[in-house]
């Protein structure tokens, strides 16, 4: 079984180190707007949640891409082929988690690609809220429960 990102919102301190590590790895600059992870703060509940691509088994973003620029790579990560991508942004609308963004400066889409098997968000997360672990039944079940909870809270994109 391949490795997967495991998110534990209860451990997140809201430091946003994951955003900085991700953006630096992707663009060589510390700019959270260019990160494939976003920390969402829920002030009323006093929690922070790192939001990122859940690497869906049946990705909506892949289904709507008119030029087949989105595919699963050998690591199981759902990635965007920038050579094929036409920048239509339909994948942004289709993502039920809402974590594909557009870098208008470079005119390209930003989506988690698991950093070729070494996700910087997990490597630099000081609290362990983001971990990259071997996928087993327990972790996969947790991942599915978190995804279902977010779909329930934010509404599923059909």
UniProtKB/TrEMBL annotation:
Superkingdom in the source lineage: Bacteria
CDD domains given in the database record: DMSOR_beta_like
Residue spans crossing the bilayer: none
Gene3D superfamilies: 3.30.70.20
Cofactor: [4Fe-4S] cluster
Gene Ontology molecular functions: 4 iron, 4 sulfur cluster binding; electron transfer activity; metal ion binding
UniProt keywords, alphabetically: 4Fe-4S, Electron transport, Iron, Iron-sulfur, Metal-binding, Transport
Domain 4Fe-4S ferredoxin-type: 3-33, 43-75, 76-105, 106-135
One Pfam entry name: Fer4
InterPro entries associated with the record: 4Fe4S_Fe-S-bd, 4Fe4S_Fe_S_CS, 7Fe_ferredoxin, RnfB_subfamily
Function: Ferredoxins are iron-sulfur proteins that transfer electrons in a wide variety of metabolic reactions.
UniProt name for this protein: Ferredoxin
Phylogenetic placement of the source organism: Bacteria, Bacillati, Bacillota, Clostridia, Peptostreptococcales
């Amino acid at each position: 079984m391949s490795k997967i990102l495991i998110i534990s919102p209860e451990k997140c301190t809201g430091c946003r180190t994951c955003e900085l590590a991700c953006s630096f790895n992707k663009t060589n600059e510390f700019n959270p707007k260019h990160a494939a992870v976003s920390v969402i703060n829920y002030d009323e509940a006093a929690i922070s949640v790192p939001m990122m691509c859940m690497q869906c088994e049946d990705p909506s973003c892949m289904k709507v891409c008119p030029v087949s620029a989105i595919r699963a790579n050998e690591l199981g990560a759902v990635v965007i082929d920038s050579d094929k991508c036409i920048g239509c942004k339909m994948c942004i609308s289709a993502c039920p988690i809402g974590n594909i963004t557009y870098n208008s400066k470079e005119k390209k889409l930003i989506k988690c690609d698991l950093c070729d098997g070494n996700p910087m968000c997990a490597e630099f997360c000081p609290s362990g809220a983001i971990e990259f672990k071997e996928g087993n039944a327990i972790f996969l079940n947790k991942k599915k429960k978190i995804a279902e909870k977010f779909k329930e809270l934010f509404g599923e994109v059909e």
